[in-house]
Specification:
Elements: E1 22-27, H1 33-37, H2 42-51, E2 54-58, E3 70-75, H3 77-98, H4 112-117, H5 121-128
Antiparallel strand pairs: 1-3, 2-3
Helix pairs in contact: 2-3
């Protein structure tokens, strides 16, 4: 038996060159796809460049399991998270712009304007009053 067969070799693995890649899909209502993409693709391009991610639009295709419009984001976990938040902000801000009377407070209560639109209790009482 040779001496070399009894020796164990130790190797040091260098993980500095390895990258973790994450991927997620963000569902976007069809009416807000244009807001996320932006005029001439400028918004989505800015998101890609600033977050260093790859983003593709997934069209609804039941055969591939995509029932709704969504965007597939791929990159480092941190960058994917940042791009996802950015897309959600674009959708939320567009929704707020389109629905100024529908905003809610952080407590989930409707705004004062919505409260003012509610019928007075007298209205409800009149519904149940006997004639």
């Amino acid at each position: 038996m040779s001496e070399s067969s009894n020796q164990t070799t130790k190797t040091k693995t260098n993980y500095s060159n390895q990258h973790v890649t994450a991927s997620t899909a963000v569902t976007v209502p069809p009416r807000y796809i244009g807001s996320v993409i932006g005029k001439d693709g400028k918004t989505i391009q800015e998101i890609k460049e600033k977050t260093h991610t790859r983003i593709t639009h997934l069209y609804p295709n039941p055969h591939d399991g995509h029932l709704l419009d969504s965007f597939r984001i791929t990159g480092s976990p941190h960058n994917v998270d940042q791009a996802q938040k950015w897309i959600r902000r674009v959708v939320a801000n567009t929704w707020r712009k389109d629905n100024p009377n529908e905003t809610q407070s952080t407590e989930g209560e409707t705004t004062e304007k919505k409260r003012a639109e509610r019928p007075e209790p007298v209205y409800y009482e009149s519904l149940f009053a006997s004639s």
